[in-house]
## 1
Amino acid sequence: MVASTFELFKIGVGPSSSHTMGPMLAAAMFVERLADAGQLDEVTRVETLLFGSLALTGKGHATDRAILLGLSGQRPEHIEPDAADMLVEEIRSCSEIRLNGSHAIPFDEETDVIFDQKKRLDFHSNAMRFTAYLDDQPVESRVYYSVGGGAVLDEDQIGSNNPESGLWDVPYRFCSGADLLRIAADEGLSIAEIMRANERTRQEDEAISAGIRAIADAMSACIDRGILQDGILPGGLRVKRRAPLIHARLMERQERALSDPLTILDWVNLWALAVNEENAAGGKVVTAPTNGAAGIVPSVLRFYERFAPKADAAGVETFLLTAAAIGSLFKENASISGAEVGCQGEVGVACSMAAAGLTAAWGGTPLQVENAAEIGMEHNLGLTCDPVGGLVQVPCIERNAVGAVKAIEAARLAILGDGTHRVSLDEVIETMRKTGLDMSERYKETSQGGLAVNLVEC
Ligand code: SF4
């Protein structure tokens, strides 16, 4: 199965695609279902139970806010962060919620949103159950799973990793890196052209380009906003935003920068930090492929736009289409969820996608692109997910800066070779999947291991 570019890259809000965007979407789907069945107006109470990783790190990942917004009928792609703050404030102060934006019921967050930290559902760690009541009688109850990158499965869709593209009939069906390389060789197409040909079955070329431009613009706007915001990130860890200070320093030393070959890395670091600080603050970001790893692709894309001698709009499209093709392979054959396979599934996948995108935009061959994607993941294998305080801040923000630099390094290594290499992308994807299976649950977005328990609080 092939995931669309527009499924991998979704515009939404922080701090987490699986713990914020997914639960918001699931809650919105539940109340819409009630409305479609004509049951909404008879509902007197809705209870939300959160399980597994959602229960363990949901508070830090703003899952509680996301549930309130989703039950109010809000969806991640449409919501504005400031308006969301006001709506949550209103629900909490009035102890009342308007289900699907229309039917008002009493709402007591203490008893109506329950974090069940002892229970994990078998199919996926990010599970939630919504139950609607008429007085004390349940009228509807449904389980949803947030499976990564903001995607949601309801209980009838178990077994499909990709509900959105399940029925997508494409001219170039690829399930592996080997498939991509074979199609590219047989048809004389680049990986971006294969992806674009598939997208054409859903929309015209012009709409595809406009959609990609909107993604690139949203990424760029997030960088620019993050650079300007100062202060302490929310959540209680007292993590200070670094992007504005680094930006000011870089602007001050422009002359000296000419003799410092590593200045470019400072800019790459800055752009990634800016995005992930925005994400941690609940700002508008693009999943790439997740929110926790949202800084890598934008940072490397801007590196391409600023520093590649022949950078242009076509190169940006090539970059993002190629990155999406690689992300699709990870999504279908392994996972892009930190709660399922650790941070290798988020920062590792983003690094692989960005490395492939940059190599393609630089004019690399499909073999070199596949090589770059493989390098980008190989050196992230085993990366654990251990967010301190359940917040998407430490180690997440800095990890994106390191991941962006690593992606450039992977692209550079690939472009220096001819694309032949010992470990294939498919082998590394399978290794990532198996490593994720072997990984202790403690290191899968539970905040029960690693830095999350070993960081000494001052
Ligand atoms: S450690 Fe990685 S996977 Fe875990 S929340 Fe942070 S960015 Fe996401």
## 2
Amino acid sequence: MIAMSKTPDFSTRTSWDFAETDLVRAVRQRRAAGLPLYDLTASNPTRCGFQYDDDAILAALAQPQALTYDPDPHGMLAARQAVCRYYADHGAKLDPAHVFLTPSTSEAYSYLFRVLCDPGDEVLIAQPSYPLFDFLAQIDNVRLIPYPLFYDHGWRLDAAALRQKITPRTRAIAVVHPNNPTGHFTKSDERKELESICEAHGLALIVDEVFLDYPLGDNSASPSFACGEHPVLTFVLSGLSKIAALPQMKAAWIAAFGPAAILEPALQRIEVVADTFLSMNAPVQCALPVWLECRGGIQRQIIDRVRHNLALLDKTLSGTQASRFEVEGGWYAVLRIPAIEPDEAVAVRLVSKFGVELHPGHFFGFPASGWLVLSLLPKESEKADAYRSIALCFK
Ligand SMILES: Cc1ncc(COP(=O)(O)O)c(C=O)c1O
């Protein structure tokens, strides 16, 4: 008798569509043909021609303490104290006992989802927003419920629409400050509104501040949610991938705030999750204070580059059918284009005919036509031609 061979089933949470998209195919074919392609999705700062203090960055990894394994679910105290100094520079007081180090902000979300949510519980997230959230939530069995942002001389949070999204399964509201890709900072009245909604419904506030240090206008910066009073359980997330432009080093954190009665049990629970993984490695934790100290130089270069790229983009697109939305912070620009065909088709045409790769807006939760998103990090030599090609496409 021949035994029937059986294969394992996979979880439904991983039943993603792995088919190649038209856009990925267009990029692959253009590259295979050896034709030039300007990559305006490039947002890896280590590949965008910035000058890092290489010696200081590497020397920080060779500290003798890194040879001892001394695990702490919160992360090494010296590294957490450096995180507290970072917030002190932003005018906020933070207790190192309220900090957890994580390898990435993405993993910080995952810790919080596990602590706050049962399978099927809901977290509200602004739309448009950063596409990785969908995956982060899905692999932790959390349902992401989008709440709208609207544009009226700048982006605003639609608090009335947000309230309507709250159900008995809602556990938290997530805010990206400044948001990716809209680049708008949450204003103080919006923060108050969010806090009062959280208070009324018993929700936690998760605030992703990875782009906090990249305000683009002279007055566009807005304080960290670490500042001021915290009437509700608030988790501020950030990390070195953007703050020090060192995504390869994998160092981030959760800073927790809120009334003691709810903060203490939250800390206890996060501690167990963190203790289960003990994900941080010693050399990176030893180096974190040095890398944070070095952030000023790289931040200045990035802000200069982004401002310069924005100005050039505006100049090149002027008089075309593509216009740029106001951006207060971050590394991205949002383009409004005629909404006459799917943005995926526009992005494919930009690759195939004009040799420019950028994101279709629906990636970030914009409606399926009328929007494109591009990174403002690409370096001097590439972007001028790329912007001219966009202008040609929308002339
Ligand atoms: C808004 C936002 N949050 C988090 C992340 C991920 O950061 P990390 O590298 O720390 O996981 C990104 C990366 O682009 C981001 O745009």
